[in-house]
């Protein structure tokens, strides 16, 4: 497929987009939307989200209309609709996960959209408050099934390094569609103002139409299928639920993610639940409430959209936990600051931190959770989030009311505080504790100071790329197949007329052979980690000066088996060294010469190490060491995907070679005939 696409380019035929060879940055949202299957699912999801928001507005308006002029009954009716939208999550979450994991996800979503459309159509036709409440429960049950099926499908539609951007789009669409939904609802009610109750009925019918179109859009996404189950064929519903709960509660990383995501959501919910009382205490009234509400959701959107790119030096786990702690600090700031202008800026920061945790957590769930239990896990998250929302909105105002307004007099001074602010302070402490617990459970860079990673996000240098010749580096863990692919690549390039130099690190020079013997021979034993890093850096300095640069100046294509990324992954992340220090030494040793393209062959360490009967000094390191190395390689590639090609090395070698050739074909210099 890849080679045929390359041939089509040469003939002038438009190529089919291949997400694996797209050089756009990992956080480029346009690159994700170029993936046809995800784009169509995103359109369907956007329509469903739009329908959810229109439905909320229309059903609350219709409930009030059904209740008549009775003020108390109208409030009960609206409150009933809001409560019933949350209630099914407390009961149906595990069942929804079972359906998402056992049935065909594509048809689950198609039927879910069609069923929701049908229920919405019946509400104005039946025309009673009782049926409206019943239909609300049924619609929410279907939505609980639809959501996990969608969330579990996304990781199968996009490459691993595009998943974060895909989640950003999904989450921004979830909250961003509230604004166009409000505009549509307002426009419908204004245009049809003279038609009485039909005005609201029309909004409900428009809502039903969004679900209908969403279902039709998903029909074309054939790539969505059933979850992959490797060991069990037809477990019972109860067994599936128990297994899902056991997996979530028994896996520290996933448990931390679920608790943390719920905590991030709770931080925002506290502000929304207490916001009205909070701004009244500041004498800001309705406009102040609107500003505070917009600040929280605006910050949430900013965090989802920009935090992963802005703090690219942080791993996703660290960004997730840091966002939780930041949310707690933001809540504390709101509780302590009694000035609307400053509180608004703090609310934006709070929302930004919560959004950073939310998108990082969702991405980690997609990467960490096996496909067979992914639907159950996302259903568990949805249930937890909705439960937290219900409890927070119900309990926070009650606590604030119980505290009331208090004044404490000390000598000549008096200190006044209110229940809303003090409740926010309590919630801030809880959010901070949750963040710290998540940090301890999930920190994947123990011993490396957090602020060094933050500085690393803003201290990157562009590097120097060859202007003559072409420089390729093959990277990956042990047993990933670099030697095999190097040989295949050399043969392909030579057939196309290129002069090729194949080299490696360490050991490509006379000095390098001696250094290689030192660092790889098991007889060397334990040596200082800094000494090991410096030995590798010395090999690179000699390698670049005496082998790589002369060949590039002569116009050759240079292929090196390992380069600077291996030092960053093995000595920076695998060892206990500060990665910034390792990078500084290796950039200096190589005079900051960087490959035009780095090909990362990604393979689970257990599978790669199983290919060796005897292991050298590095191969004999612990499983945790090699897992950290793999994670470091993937983070390096995700930060600058325009210079990387990440390939699943579990594929057949011919498939891998085709993907490498397809990516290189438009990049290579022309051969003089």
UniProtKB/TrEMBL annotation:
Domain Thymidylate kinase-like span(s) in chain numbering: 474-660
Transmembrane segments: 41-63, 75-100, 169-190, 202-222, 253-275, 287-307, 319-337, 343-365, 377-400, 420-439
Assigned EC number: 2.7.4.9
Entry-linked Gene3D superfamilies: MFS general substrate transporter like domains, P-loop containing nucleotide triphosphate hydrolases
Gene Ontology cellular component annotations, sorted alphabetically: plasma membrane
Reaction it catalyzes: dTMP + ATP = dTDP + ADP
Annotated compartments: Cell membrane
Superkingdom per UniProt: Bacteria
Membrane topology recorded in Swiss-Prot or TrEMBL: Multi-pass membrane protein
Pfam family, one: Thymidylate_kin
CDD domains in the record: MFS_MefA_like, TMPK
GO BP field: dTDP biosynthetic process; dTTP biosynthetic process
GO MF annotation: an example: dTMP kinase activity
Keywords recorded for this protein, A-Z: ATP-binding, Cell membrane, Kinase, Membrane, Nucleotide biosynthesis, Nucleotide-binding, Transferase, Transmembrane, Transmembrane helix, Transport
Binding site for ATP: 476-483
Purpose of the protein: Phosphorylation of dTMP to form dTDP in both de novo and salvage pathways of dTTP synthesis.
Family under the similarity heading: Belongs to the thymidylate kinase family.
NCBIfam families assigned to the protein according to its UniProt record, in alphabetical order: DTMP_kinase
Protein name: Thymidylate kinase
Native species: Kribbella caucasensis
